[in-house]
Specification:
It comes from Paractinoplanes abujensis. By secondary structure, the protein is an alpha/beta fold. It contains 28 helices and 16 strands. It folds into 4 domains: 254 residues, Rhopdopsin 7-helix transmembrane proteins (Up-down Bundle); 73 residues; 140 residues, Reverse transcriptase/Diguanylate cyclase domain (Alpha-Beta Plaits); 249 residues, TIM Barrel.
Length: 756
């Protein structure tokens, strides 16, 4: 059996039976059938096909419970319909002569079918509607009832004596009326209330079938002189076929998501169609039948009143819709010009404001320092709260003295009129931004870096913001928590930095990078314990450049990863060379700095592992130094550090004491070595307080089993004080400046000879 027949066999069989019954009916109009029973045989078969189709759909496990329940009800209706069809056939050909009589049992079965279908329809889930929607629905339903009632009166009820004489009861007439109402009710149900997860096209097929079957059933008066024919011979197969097709549609499509509710139509064709139908009936009745004329007049007046009320409601709804559109337009305009998080003006509003301001006013670009650290450590929700709180503070400080806007992220702008003392306002702004925030149970300390520029004639908003941005980065580079005016020298410096950044890309390929080594020694004697690799750039024009001149540029353009890989390769190569040539005199530890970008690189750990594997260097020889800021800046830093630790490398926390949440990092990071920042040893802030910090930190490192290295040791007195505090390793100019590999090797040789 072909696959298409197995899939669509029920529908094809139903179509064939309808065609057969139609041919029988048409032929019966021209001749008298000697064996009318043959014409009734396809009817129970077509009804049985409908039963099979509904049972198959009701058992489909893909459908939800509500949809399967509907098709179970349709199965019951189809079974009753099959029984009614058999009863109808017995009534027609079971006697000595063909008849169009319907027994009470047959009529009861047909009415039970209609009641079951109506019950199934009423149990379908519906959308939630407003009170106005229900009022419109009630008016439209009344129009439908009046119009259909007028049609039934005109086409059926006025000739009810003839129908009763023909069929033996008024039951068929009632069945036809209910069928017509059922078709209309089905359309209304689908069009207004929805059909849950039921296939909408299946409901349309059922509605069309009910309406067509009712219309065909209304042809009975035209067959009064042909008792061997009946309108049921065509109405029953059509009704069965539509049930069959609807069930097949649902079965083929499976479960479906409820359709999105369509907005209520403010202009409906229904009132006008109802009036047109009723007016047509009124005109067609003439004046011969006063009772029918009166009935049609009552229907026309009733419909006119309903239409008037319906249109008044539509006019009121239209006015309400216009008001809603105005409010919505105002809301959209506000959203287009304001930031959704803070409610401040956004970039578009700011640019519009700048274009309307005269030259000479000031524009400040405000950036929150270390916002990313807060966002990463405490979560984005706290970051959003910080942005919102900062926006409120800026607005409160500015008051009516400036126009505050948010550009995005952690950047704000303040437009200051030339009549306002900008210095006083900016000082108050810096102070307010630096005050602690209480956010979600956390005390957050932030600050602001501010760049300020004065507008000139012909300035575009983009150029104004660019200058303010350059000045803001100058303030941030100077340490943050300050404001800085833009001047032309900043542009020249920015151009120079851009050129240097472009030239840096050729440094690796041009063999311009240089690795220097600064010794790390053991206290108190100063015996070599290792070395830290420090990168320099031998610029062809500017000479040897320190890291401060190009590392920030590399971090900005992403080249820091490539530079970091070069340093690691060079460090591993040199360590292997020293191991092979110097043996025990080779440095025991080689330290390499790792940036936040490298920690964020998902391939970084694999790169380090391949270096160690290919070189044969013992993993414990390599020490990777990371700063607190780098660890906090990379979301995957902790995971990366644990993976590196698993390779056997040692992890050092560099510049300890200058970042955020330092002590908590000792708990979270797999740290082997802590490097005390030189600010606590020999910096401008070194003193009694710094000594206290250094002494207390060594207690923590001892308790955690972590080695400590003091950086920036410049005098013997500092070295002695650190050793007395408990430090066993140190690094600084006292023990050696950064030198080449050959120079460090000579230092190691001299030290070894002196020790011997």
């Amino acid at each position: 059996m072909p696959r298409w027949w197995r899939t669509h066999g029920l529908e094809l069989a139903g179509v064939a039976l309808v065609a057969l019954c139609l041919a029988w009916m048409l032929a019966g109009l021209a001749l008298v059938w000697a064996h009318p029973l043959l014409g009734w045989l396809p009817l129970p078969v077509s009804a049985a096909l409908a039963v099979i189709a509904t049972v198959r759909t009701a058992r489909d496990p893909r459908l939800d419970a509500g949809t399967r329940r509907f098709w179970r009800h349709l199965t019951v209706a189809a079974v009753l319909f099959t029984a009614g069809t058999v009863g109808n056939a017995v009534d027609a050909v079971g006697g000595p002569l063909p008849s169009q009589l319907l027994s009470p049992a047959t009529v009861a079965l047909y009415l039970a079918v209609l009641a079951t279908v109506m019950w199934a329809l009423l149990r379908l889930p519906s959308w939630q509607r407003s009170r106005a929607d229900w009022i419109r629905f009630g008016l439209d339903s009344c129009m439908v009832l009046v119009t259909v009632g007028a049609l039934v009166w005109h086409l059926a009820l006025r000739d009810h004596e003839q129908w009763t004489a023909q069929t033996g009861s008024s039951g068929p007439m009632l069945a036809i009326m209910l069928s017509a109402f059922l078709g209309v009710a089905t359309f209304v149900k689908v069009g207004f209330a929805g059909a849950g997860r039921l296939d909408r096209q299946a409901i349309h097929v059922l509605a069309a079938g009910c309406a067509i079957a009712a219309a065909v059933g209304g042809l009975s008066p035209f067959l009064a002189d042909r008792p061997y024919l009946s309108s049921s011979l065509l109405a029953v197969p059509i009704a069965s076929l539509t049930i069959n097709l609807a069930a097949a549609r649902q079965w083929h499509n499976g479960v479906r998501t409820p359709a999105t509710r369509r907005p209520a139509r403010q202009i409906s064709w229904l009132p006008y169609a109802a009036v047109a139908v009723t007016d047509g009936l009124l005109l067609s009745t003439g004046t011969g039948d006063a009772a029918e004329t009166t009935a049609m007049q009552i229907a026309a007046v009733t419909l006119t009143a309903l239409v008037v009320v319906r249109q008044v409601l539509a006019l009121r709804d239209n006015q309400r819709l216009v008001e809603q559109l105005r409010r919505y337009q105002h809301k959209l305009q506000h959203q287009a010009h304001h930031d959704s998080l803070t409610g401040l003006a956004n970039r578009a509003h700011l640019e519009q404001h700048l274009r309307t301001r005269p030259a000479g006013h000031h524009v400040a670009l405000i950036d929150l320092d270390d916002f990313k650290v807060v966002n990463d450590r405490l979560g984005h929700h706290v970051g959003d709260q910080l942005i919102t709180a900062a926006g409120r503070r800026l607005t409160a400080v500015a008051g009516d003295r400036g126009f505050v806007a948010r550009l995005g992220g952690d950047e704000f702008t303040l437009v200051i009129p030339d009549t306002v003392d900008a210095g006083e306002l900016l000082a108050a702004l810096i102070e307010a931004a630096g005050a602690p925030y209480e956010l979600d149970g956390h005390t957050v300390v932030s600050a602001a870096s501010v760049g300020v520029t004065t507008t000139r004639t012909g300035d575009e908003p983009a150029e104004i913001l660019r200058r303010a941005d350059v000045a803001m980065y100058a303030a941030k580079t100077a340490g943050g928590h300050r404001w800085h005016w833009f001047d032309a020298e900043m542009d020249r410096a920015a151009d120079a930095a851009a050129r240097l950044s472009a030239e840096l890309r050729d440094a690796v390929r041009g063999n311009q990078l240089v690795a220097l080594y600064q010794p790390i020694v053991a206290l108190p004697g100063g015996a070599p314990a290792g070395a830290e690799v420090l990168l320099r750039w031998r610029h062809p024009e500017q000479g040897l450049l320190g890291p401060d001149a190009f590392i920030p540029l590399a971090e900005g353009n992403g080249l820091i990863v490539e530079l970091g890989q070069w340093v690691l390769r060079e460090a591993v190569r040199q360590a292997v060379d020293w191991r092979d040539r110097l043996g025990e005199r080779a440095p025991g530890r080689i330290s390499v700095n790792v940036s936040a970008r490298q920690l964020a690189d998902p391939h970084f750990v694999d790169f380090v592992a391949s270096l160690l594997r290919d070189s044969g260097l013992a993993p414990e020889t390599l020490v990777l130094e990371v700063t607190e800021t780098a660890v906090l800046a990379a979301d995957t830093a902790f995971d990366q550090l644990h993976r590196l630790k698993a390779l056997g490398l040692r992890i050092a926390l560099d510049d300890f004491g200058t970042g955020h949440s330092s002590l908590s990092l000792l708990l979270d990071c797999p740290v082997d070595l802590l490097k005390l920042d030189k600010a606590f040893v020999s910096g401008a802030r070194a003193g009694r307080a710094a000594d206290a910090v250094a002494r207390n930190l060594i207690v923590f490192t001892d308790d955690f089993g972590i080695d400590a290295v003091a950086e920036g040791v410049e005098t013997a007195e500092q070295a002695a004080r650190l050793h007395e505090a408990g430090y066993r390793f140190a690094q600084g100019y006292l023990f050696g400046r950064p030198v080449s590999a050959d120079a460090l090797e000579q230092m190691l040789t001299v030290t070894a000879v002196a020790a011997a």
